[in-house]
Amino acid sequence: TDEEALVDVLRLSRGMTYKAAISGLNLGGGKAVIIGDPAKLKNEAFMRRFGRFVDSLGGRYITAEDVNMKTRDMEYVHMETDSVTGIPESMGGSGDPSPVTAYGVYMGMKATAHHVFGSDNLSEKSVVVQGVGQVGMYLVDHLTKEGAKVYITDIAEEKLAKVAKSSGAEVVGLDDIYDLDVDIYSPCALGATLNDNTIPRLKASIIAGGANNQLKEERKHGYMLIDRGITYAPDFLINAGGLINVGAEYYGPYNREKAHLDAEKIYDTTLDILKMATDESISTQEAAIMIAERRIASIGNIKLPY
After folding, report:
1. For the segment 197-244, what is each residue's pLDDT rounded down to a tens digit?
2. Which of 30, 36, 125, 236 lies in disulfide reach of 41, CB 3.0 to 4.6 Å?
3. Structural domain containing residue 202
4. Is the pLDDT of residue 43 over 80?
5. How many domains does the chain contain in total?
6. Which domain CATH number covers 66?
């Protein structure tokens, strides 16, 4: 519905603002939500119309690939506007940002493991990844290469089977993931999976994933996790790799190695946020928001020297 789309886009744009701030990027925050079935709506003409709309904003909004969008879609958008990233490498862009996003999530997960377990070694840990789209797929690859025991689930059965075959991960049912006795739960699909119904079922010690807006209600569910003894790596902190990649492409020239190095910094930032939350007896989400808002206020107070 229109109301659901509005709530979604406002939460997403707020999250993008915090991502940019906490990652030290020279970007604000914005997001677009298109109402409709992507399987029926998306074609060249539709994406080019969207590109014209983005262009009408005069550079105030830069769009990029995300849920239900592919590099090919960004290519169509680019035919109408320069305010787009994630265009094909053959056109001077960075291509799919998912590898950098997944690497940042992986770094944040390892940092959280260090905070909780005293070591960031995941080789003997068990992880359930909810959603094996582009980000989830690359994350599974990092985890299995390190030697973690990985469980996966997704609504797209064909994609799920493909990732299971290539990675050796074990497939579990869509609803069974919340009851699995694992070390880490990694939401990498849509948001609001941490809610009144799911949190009481979780057996994981850590939540660290690539999905946006994982907490259905930030304060309430952030503290529910604390009460359960579960450490939550704030989504906009550890999934900022995609936005880091956007900045690297937009301000160019794009360097994939540098984008990965910048995403690697998520590790240290995560450690800082987790320590702050512990020291101040607040939720990790609140700690991350405080750091982001401090930078927003600081940069917002810059006065011109004339």
Report:
1. 999 999 999 999 999 999 999 899 999 999 999 999 999 999 999 999
2. 36
3. 98-238+272-288
4. yes
5. 2
6. 3.40.50.10860
Contact yes or no for 234/276 (Cβ under 8 A): no
Mark which of 74, 91, 108 sits at the end of a domain. 91
The values of phi and psi at residue 66, to 5°, are: -155, -150
- CA 188, chain centre distance (Å): 8
Residue 165 placed within a domain? yes
Q: Which residue has the higher pLDDT, 67 or 237?
A: 237
Positive or negative, the CA dihedral 182, 186, 188, 193 is positive
Q: What is the maximal distance between C-alpha atoms in the chain?
A: 62
Q: Which of 19, 31, 42, 110 is catalytic?
A: 31
Cβ-based neighbours of 74, under 8 Å, separated by 6 or more = 63, 64, 65, 84, 85, 86, 87, 88, 93
Q: Residue 306: its pLDDT value, please?
A: 54
Rounded CA-CA distance 300/295 in Å is 8
Give the dihedral of Cα atoms 208, 33, 290, 236; nearest 10 deg.
Answer: 20
Q: Is 216 a catalytic residue?
A: no
Instruction: Tell me: pLDDT of 305 over 70.
Output: no
Of the residues 73, 91, 109, the one at which a domain ends: 91
Residues 127 and 232 in one domain: yes
Q: Are residues 73 and 102 in the same domain?
A: no
pLDDT exceeds cutoff 80 at 139: yes
